[in-house]
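tokens incoming
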């Protein structure tokens, strides 16, 4: 034991099997000669603090896992220009290098003008149900929906959350649906024409039967 206060943490198990964490402080007590005559120890129960810290770490791990594995492209741009989150879905969508980007301007340069205008406007939230990335690519342009949300604590703006939803699969399904509806309309039309032709053929067959039977039986009224 030195002559300075000592601090440590210990864990005890109660008779009921519960784990309790304590912050222990040991302070030396001096006699008249300046020697340590006794040590005073004080223990403070910090079990609840340990629980809250563990829960906070668990929530952080879960949040990071959700963001990293999200099918939507997600990024957070902090107010100081840092990019703490840029998940792989967005890296893949934008065709970025594996290390991502180092400055927000590199991301802004890839976004449509209308999106950048909303970002610069400072609005708390905005949503584009459909816009296009890389329009210069023509048929290979990427249709997306983009949502932006300002992250705030009170009046302090922490940054901007941007979410991207790739609409290419949706567009393929919409195109397939249109084609299916077009084929259904063509089939319905052909079916109607076939039914009409069948009615005409049936009428002609009936008329030929009347004419032939009238000629064979010599009945002018049937021929008429």
């Amino acid at each position: 034991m030195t002559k300075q206060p000592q601090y440590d943490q210990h864990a005890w198990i109660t008779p009921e099997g519960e784990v309790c964490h304590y912050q222990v402080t040991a302070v030396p007590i001096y006699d008249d000669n300046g020697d340590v005559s006794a040590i005073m120890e004080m223990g403070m129960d910090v079990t609840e603090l340990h629980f809250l810290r563990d829960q906070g770490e668990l929530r952080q791990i879960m949040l990071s896992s959700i963001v990293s594995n999200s099918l939507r492209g997600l990024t957070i741009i902090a107010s100081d220009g840092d990019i703490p989150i840029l998940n792989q879905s967005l890296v893949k969508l934008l065709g970025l290098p594996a290390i991502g980007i180092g400055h927000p301007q590199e991301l802004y340069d890839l976004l449509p003008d209308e999106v950048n205008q909303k970002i610069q406007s400072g609005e708390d939230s905005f949503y584009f149900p459909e816009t296009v990335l890389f329009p210069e690519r023509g048929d290979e342009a990427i249709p997306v929906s983009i949502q932006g949300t300002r992250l705030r604590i009170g009046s302090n703006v922490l940054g901007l959350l941007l979410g991207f939803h790739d609409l290419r699969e949706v567009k393929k399904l919409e195109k397939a649906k249109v084609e299916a509806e077009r084929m259904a309309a063509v089939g319905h039309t052909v079916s109607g024409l076939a039914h009409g032709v069948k009615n005409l053929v049936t009428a002609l067959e009936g008329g030929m039967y009347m004419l032939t039977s009238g000629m064979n039986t010599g009945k002018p009224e049937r021929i008429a």
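note: Helices lie at 47-69, 88-94, 104-108, 113-121, 168-217, 220-223.
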